[in-house]
Design brief:
With 228 residues, the chain is of the alpha/beta class. It contains 7 helices and 9 strands. The longest helix is centred in the first third of the chain and has 22 residues. It binds S-adenosylmethionine (SAM).
Length: 228
């Protein structure tokens, strides 16, 4: 009787431990799973073209000659577009799976790329080169902890050159509260301006409702800033 109770208890602990492991994935495991499970064109943020990003990029003189950092690049084909125009790229993502997918796509291309597979809210390596342009699409809004948000902006301010530009595309205040099963911190242009501080000037911003691959509307804000 006693032995049976111990056995059942042991079994229950084992089950709970494994459920915990499934539910409490690290951020990189979570994103690896997302990129493993779905084809690129089925991802909720998949874009066929990058018209809204180029609408802002084209306001930057000579952007084609720039070094551009893409935090949380995912598997976005914006990478190929920027390479085609001659840009040097620093590609970041927390997901080794996403980085490896992009890397294998680019094997044939002799592109000038620095890879940074890490959490972008944590300090970047000192060897990481300074950048002319920072382009974030749908990454900043995943940080919900104030320390992580501060860490993200600290990196942006450390690595963006004076005179450099930052582009943001984030879920707006009217957007959904969750994406990829994660809770979001949605943005207004005012909040991004406040977080960047006075050394950044807002050049242009607009609202844009993105239609995801399931045909559902996702309201975003887009904003371009120049650093003094
Ligand atoms: C919604 S997807 C957007 C991907 C890409 N920017 C695009 O527009 O297709 C969010 C991306 O941010 C990455 N990510 C999430 N948290 C991150 C973090 N803390 N540091 C770096 N990348 C992160 C995810 O792995 C994922 O690739």
């Amino acid at each position: 009787m006693f032995h049976n109770a111990v056995r059942i208890l042991y079994f229950l602990v084992l089950v709970l431990f494994n459920i915990g492991k499934v539910l409490l994935k690290s951020d990189s495991e979570h994103w690896d799973m997302v990129f493993n499970e779905r084809e690129e064109s089925q991802l909720g943020w998949f874009e066929k073209d990058f018209l809204q990003t180029f609408r802002l990029l084209n306001l930057i003189p000579d952007w084609q000659k720039s070094t551009i950092l893409l935090p949380g690049v995912g598997t976005s084909k914006l990478v190929e577009e920027l390479i085609r125009h001659g840009c040097r790229l620093i590609l970041n993502d927390i997901s080794p799976e996403a980085i490896s997918k992009v890397n294998s796509r680019l094997l044939e291309k002799k592109a000038n790329i620095t890879w940074l597979c890490q959490d972008i809210s944590q300090p970047l390596p000192e060897s990481s080169p300074p950048v002319d342009i920072w382009i974030d699409r749908a990454v900043l809004h995943f940080f919900t902890d104030q320390n992580d948000i501060k860490g993200y902006f600290a990196n942006l301010k450390s690595y963006l050159k004076p005179g450099g530009y930052a582009i943001f595309a984030e879920f707006s205040l009217t957007g959904r509260e969750k994406c990829a099963h994660l809770k979001l911190h949605r943005y207004s242009v005012d909040e991004i301006s406040d977080r960047l501080g006075e050394s950044f000037k807002l050049i242009s911003s607009f609202d844009f409702t993105f239609t995801n691959p399931r045909g559902e509307p996702r309201p975003y804000i887009y904003a371009l800033y120049k650093r003094n």
